[in-house]
UniProtKB/TrEMBL annotation:
Domain Complex 1 LYR protein positions: 7-63
Matching Pfam families: Complex1_LYR (PF05347)
Protein name per its UniProtKB record: Complex 1 LYR protein domain-containing protein
Organism whose genome encodes this protein: Drosophila erecta (Fruit fly)
Gene: Dere\GG20592
Amino acid sequence: MVQPSRQQILRLYKHLIRYGNHLKLTDKNYFLGRVRHEFRDNRSLTNPVEVEFSFKRGETLLKKGRIL
């Protein structure tokens, strides 16, 4: 398992923020606040498995538009 680089994580953050700005049927402020909160909470993760899991979770949200 390869841990995502800092650049990849920052790119994911940027894409999630852009995605949130284009939402129509969801509360934008809630979504954007949630994204910022998750990234802030996960900033201190050091376990590569947890970092990879969180990164994949964000990518899934972008691809499918939701998290199951």
